[in-house]
């Protein structure tokens, strides 16, 4: 019973955080590992659990969405689907022991990216022009590849990539980030399912909690103190990073 409560709370809070700024995997992945799920399956199952939250968050931001300048939704989502699919394919061929050694470094990268996000995004979104189109699209592909492999911190990295593509309105970028996250995660989850690395009995109730969390995030995103949300995500990421380094 306590394990079930832990997973539901992690999915609810993860969906909420993902809708606002990202970082939901800092909660769902460790919770699944804690209850005994192997690392690769925990990563895949946690990603599935947050998938509906991305969709509900996209719906909540539906009036604040537009593709980046010079790109169509078809182009953006095509890159997202390709990157998410290749990232998922890499995950399913990674042995659990190897992935367990990589996880602390992935968590460290995600935590540092989140902690530095204000500085990073500020520089990108205040820039006078976007980087060359081929570079911007390569960055977007790289971030979605990372997102298909390990979902932690992908929201912040996507906001940075969208800024490089040319988006200058943070509200619009946040809406686009949710849609891109949904598409790359959907493709990744399909490949996870085909590889039979999903723990469905745990994923399904977590998905319901993730939906509620995503809707709450869309509603509360403009009301919750931003510094408080950031502090919670950074602290959680730092603690999980230390824990997994100690276990590696």
TrEMBL record:
Membrane topology value: Multi-pass membrane protein
Gene Ontology CC entries for this record: plasma membrane
Pfam families: TauE
Main location class: membrane
Entry's localization field: Cell membrane
Family membership: Belongs to the 4-toluene sulfonate uptake permease (TSUP) (TC 2.A.102) family.
Protein name: Probable membrane transporter protein
Keywords from the UniProt entry: Cell membrane, Membrane, Transmembrane, Transmembrane helix, Transport
Gene source species: Corticimicrobacter populi
Keyword Protein transport: no
Parts of the chain that traverse the membrane: 71-93, 105-125, 145-167, 179-195, 201-221, 228-246
InterPro entries: TM_pro_TauE-like, TSUP
């Amino acid at each position: 019973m306590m394990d079930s409560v832990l997973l539901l709370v992690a999915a609810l809070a993860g969906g909420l955080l993902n809708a606002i700024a990202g970082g939901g995997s800092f909660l769902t992945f460790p919770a699944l590992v804690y209850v005994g799920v192997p690392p690769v399956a925990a990563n895949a199952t946690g990603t599935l659990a947050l998938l509906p939250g991305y969709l509900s968050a996209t719906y909540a931001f539906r009036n604040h969405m537009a593709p980046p300048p010079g790109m169509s939704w078809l182009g953006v989502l095509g890159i997202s689907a390709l990157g998410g699919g290749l990232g998922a394919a890499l995950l399913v061929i990674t042995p659990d022991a190897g992935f367990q050694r990589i996880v602390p470094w992935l968590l460290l990268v995600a935590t540092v990216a989140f902690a530095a996000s204000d500085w990073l995004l500020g520089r990108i979104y205040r820039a006078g022009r976007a980087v060359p189109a081929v570079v911007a699209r390569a960055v977007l592909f790289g971030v979605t590849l990372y997102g298909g492999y390990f979902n932690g911190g992908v929201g912040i990295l996507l906001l940075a990539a969208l800024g490089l593509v040319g988006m200058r309105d943070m509200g619009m970028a946040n809406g686009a980030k949710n849609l891109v996250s949904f598409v790359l995660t959907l493709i990744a989850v399909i490949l996870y399912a085909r590889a039979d690395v999903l723990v469905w009995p745990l994923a399904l109730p977590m998905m319901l909690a993730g939906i509620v969390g995503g809707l709450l995030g869309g509603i509360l995103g403009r009301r919750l103190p931003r510094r408080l949300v950031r502090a919670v995500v950074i602290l959680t990421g730092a603690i999980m990073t230390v824990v997994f380094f100690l276990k590696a």
